[in-house]
Amino acid sequence: MKSLVILLFSGLITGCRGNSSHSLPPKLLLVSFDGFRADYLQNYEFPHLQNFIKEGVLVEHVKNVFITKTFPNHYSIVTGLYEESHGIVANSMYDVVTKKHFSDLDDKDPFWWNEAVPIWVTNQLQENRSSAAAMWPGTDVPIHNTTPSYFMNYSSSVSFEERLNNITTWLINSNPPVTFATLYWEEPDASGHKYGPEDKENMYRVLKEIDDLIGELVHKLKVLGLWENLNVIITSDHGMTQCSKDRLINLDRCIDNSSYALIDLTPVAAVLPKINTTEVYNKLKVCSPHMNVYLKEDIPARFHYQHNNRIQPIILVADEGWTIVLNKSLPKLGDHGYDNSLSSMHPFLAAHGPAFHKGYKHNTINSVDIYPMMCHILGLKPRPNNGTFGHTKCLLVDQWCINLPEAVGIVIGALLVLTTLTGLIIIMQNRLSVPRPFSRLQLQEDDDDPLIE
Q: What pTM did the predictor assign?
């Protein structure tokens, strides 16, 4: 009976594992389409992306980190760290000690990036490996004195085709080989800001262009012979929500702007008071019912956004769809940066390649979980991080994955099998031990007096 149970479980384990042996060293391409909201997949048609998913895996929702902005989330993906840990806490930052400023237009100082080690640096420092990058935030900065062997200085004017051509050339021709590469594209984020995600007509056009680019990516990988051996992850940094001129929070109505400096604006505003912090806080606290105001020490623990000197003394967090302004104008029809528990802020993740299952769908992971998964695929020892590798095991062919409902089902099934077998054995034993009818009347060889003559 024990042998039967062991055989049952070993069969299940064997069925869940895949063959992970490959003759070529593992390679990984990480692609980000900025601002690709998860539910775009349900609301629009993506024939090329859906074909990619059918042959690979899909994570329907990726819970990103707070604040849900571009630079912080892209750095969390490649470090596995919350923003308070990796130091890129916003798209605009100020350091009170050094008096330095950071913005998405002035981001090349390693000072801002050196609080973490991104995966391309770890990969670059391995023997007989190199990294490559096309525009991913931070890849053109010498982080810990290291850049990828091949990278492009950021310029939004460079076409997707040129970025893709560079990446594929580096993947094919580099020595030592490029085993990790990143590719970044600004859409659909730019159009989401311009039109808002509820503008179906314009977003349909933009998202069709995105799908065509994914088709171009897959086609090029196939033509160059990279498709079967290259692991490809397609994901994003955040989603997008609709804004309105009827949902404005005007700080100028609440407090004199000479009493504070605004380091980062909407929808999470970073406030550096010039006068008494309590006075500024008390005025902002009653400014709008559609905005939460936190002293740094009171920021909710679930945001993991407190323990870093670059986080300012007061943080303002607008409700979804509300915009913090200094006048009455609405800067964008769509925006992101809001509470990371909102589904509108969540991106998705799709992946294909020898490391991944085919035709598998998963509900959710955290964006910080992507880093330990990538390290596993590449055979890299991950740096300390906030991710959980176990959350992504179900995506990978070389991992035994079992979720709670499946585990309960297996246990119940095993118990039923054991119960049935035990019952059958007991019944068989009882049948063998029951005395035969009239057995006491059977003659024995040593009987002297038979009953019937």
A: 0.86
